[in-house]
Amino acid sequence: MKEQKRIILISLVTGIVLMVMKFAAYFLTNSNFILTDAAESIVNVVASSFAFYSIYLASMPRDENHPYGHGKVEYFSVFIEGALIGIAGVIIVLKSVYSFFNPEAIKDLLQGAIIIGFTGAINGGLGYYMIQKGRSLKSITIEADGRHLLTDTVTSVGLVIGLLLIYFTQILWLDSALSILVGCYILYTGYKLIRRSVAGLMDETDFIVVSDMVKVLDDNRRSEWIDIHNLRAQKYGSELHIDCHLTLPNYFDLIKVHEEVKMVETLVNDKAGIRTEFFIHTDPCIPKCCHYCSMPNCPIRAEAKREDIPWTMDIVMRNKKHYEQ
Description:
With 325 residues, the protein is mostly helical. It has nine helices and three strands; from the N terminus they run αααααααββαβα. GO terms for molecular function: cadmium ion transmembrane transporter activity; ferrous iron transmembrane transporter activity; zinc efflux antiporter activity.
């Protein structure tokens, strides 16, 4: 968690510096177009501040009140960031519509474009770095903050192009018209972040993460693991929680059953790239399992194996043994 805190702190300090520069550009030019970027930078600072706190909270150990840990707080962080972006987008659109019908004089657009271009380049580099780190550290907060900064970079590129267009054409109403377009884009970005946070809070399955985990199990499955079914996944920050049923030979004793369950957990944690906690319910095999069971020298086999059933998301998530599917 120390590295996550350091990354968010860098984002916060950088955001404050760039926010001051953007507002300086706005006061220099009096451009609504630049104000859209400056207003969004306030969101960057507030969001990074809350992200820093959420990562601190997510790093706290489990307790009686939070038996699954505090990782879900990262989804609240993303929700607040998305909501703030949305509010900023609404304000920008309203202000730009007003200014479209009540235009004000703008000036020094070339200097403003240079300042905004510089801040956009900084945000672009930092955003790309944070997305890569967010993925490697399995932190939705850092990744969301990085995507927000990349959105800010796209906005800045549009700003620079728009400011140069206004500067060379002297069509002043373009300032408000382009601001409205940028405001709508910011609104859409806020919606996507809110949608992602709600999905996490509602325990929507992360199909990419779970598919990778299932593939690891399928590629490394043991003969003793006859089938896996009724698999359900929940994400808590950077951790994955899995409930599933594992069918094992019915003549295994409790010690052997425990060893096999532990092997499943160790395999996924070593090779799936995400820290995973398993709650595995073990089922005994029955004669109907024999036709897809690979267990060698089985003393109770009722029929020869005649089918290979690959473990896929569709199969392992059903609440049925493979012979029932």
